[in-house]
Amino acid sequence: MDNKLKKALSIAAAGALTLSLAACGNNDNSSKNGGDAAASPSSSASSAPSASASSGEKVTLTFQNIYVDPNTPTYKTAHQIVDQYQKDHPNIKIEFDSLNTDQQKQKLKTQANAKEIPDITMVNPAAQMKPFVDANLFVPLNDVVEKNGLKDTYQSGLLDYYSFNGNVYALPDGNNIEVVYYNKDLFAQAGISNPPATFDELLADVKALKEKGIIPMAIGEKDTWTGSFIFMNILLRTNGGPGFLKDVVDGKKTFEDPAFVDAVSKFQDLIQAGAFEEGATSLDVDTGRSLFTSGKAAMYMLGSWETGTIDASEVGPKVAAFQFPTVGGKGDPNQFMLAPGTAFAIAANSKHIEEAKDFLNYFTLNFPKVQFELKNAVGLPQKVDGDMKAAGYSDLAISVADLFGKVNGGDISFDNTMNPAVSQVHLNSLQNMFVQKVDPAQVAKEHQAAYEANKDQ
After folding, report:
1. What is the pLDDT of residues 166-207, one digit of tens each?
2. Would you say 274 and 280 are in contact if contact means Cβ atoms under 8 Å apart?
3. Is residue 316 a part of any domain in this protein?
4. Of 73, 106, 333, 346, which one has the fewest beta carbons inside 10 Å?
5. What is the pTM of this model?
6. 300 falls within a domain
């Protein structure tokens, strides 16, 4: 794992149970409204009015985002902050353009080709960001992060994943690890007393759950990245640790390495065992999540950003989490799939760049405070202070926060490591495994061919 990200996660872990509302500027708890669940963001977090604000010029900013589910804390956080900002800046209107993750990615690509990116959009770090930056489609945000002390709120090293040539181009909404959430009641119904510690035990649990008519693991594979997230955990184990994709890039390994072929084979074993719901490729991630939060599926494997949503669901009190198990005796359970979050960027083609910068500074200063108040502080990208237990956080949230403290390395996602052309072959290839049985060696060969054809892009 990259030492900078390991350091960022270590800092997150150290602060997990005492989360610095210093991240929220001068906001304090006195701004709570009666019995509201969260404090209203304070206008004190914003700087002096922009020129447009002073002149009273009417400005509309389009805010493209991935917060589509009104039941999630992050959706509520975004809308609450925007509502308060509009009250404080009556001449500014923020229009939401909310899409699920894959839809937003595709729409942004189309908009980028036409050079018509919305004022504020969201993008993934590292390799997925680079083409937009290379095409000069985003503006540098160095002045935004320096304003009101915002830069100091981010975990050390995290902004490096959103920076190129000394400029910060996007501000993340999370810093997460992937865990397996499980419904303790459904496990008990299937006679499972403990979460699996090995891949063979996981397959046995899948069989036991299916025999009871319970969906073993929910997924939304219409959004292809979900399957890749699970696969990358398996590869992390079969490789005996992190760094497989880096070794490919460095010429030390190829995709036809036994570790990769074995990972494909094991992922296929999981699919063929019936681990996932029928028609998984026709269901998006929101539908997959709902299978778990409505009590129809026993497991749900995704990033720790899901903790708040699961907590707020009907199954919340029944849920715990565990690390992905070892595979064939290989791997360290305390090495995780790491997920620096999607991030907010400002379009270079925006007609209102200064207003967009002012709003983004305000939004990101207030984001951790409102998330904390809405019991969704696990996996935040910013340092926060606050006693989770005293604030009423659940056992699940505190236990997931504890897992951050166990992180001993890991890898970031495939599509944040490889270029888009290779990543698309990877995502399509894994999705196809949900439809038909494949030859793992052939899948590996297809990956290598795609890499060799596109590695210089």
Report:
1. 999 999 999 999 999 999 999 999 999 999 999 999 999 999
2. no
3. yes
4. 106
5. 0.76
6. yes
| In-domain check, residue 402 | no
Which residues have C-beta within 8 Å of that of residue 82, sequence separation ≥ 6?
63, 94, 96, 363
Range of the domain at 23: 19-174+341-386
Whole-number pLDDT of residue 41: 67
Tell me the pLDDT band of 4, cut-offs 50, 70 and 90. Answer: low
* Cβ neighbours for 297, distance < 8 A, ≥ 6 positions apart: 183, 186, 214, 215, 216, 217, 218, 277, 291
d(CA 56, CA 35): 34
Q: Are residues 333 and 351 in the same domain?
A: no
Instruction: Specify whether 105 is located in the same domain as 34.
Output: yes
Q: What is the pLDDT of residues 419-446, one digit of tens each?
A: 999 999 999 999 999 999 999 999 999 9
**Is 112:80 a contact under the CB 8 Å cutoff?**
no
d(C-alpha 141, C-alpha 127), whole Å = 18
Q: Is the domain of 360 the same as that of 444? A: no
| pLDDT, tens digit, 9 for 90 and up, residues 100-111 | 998 999 999 999
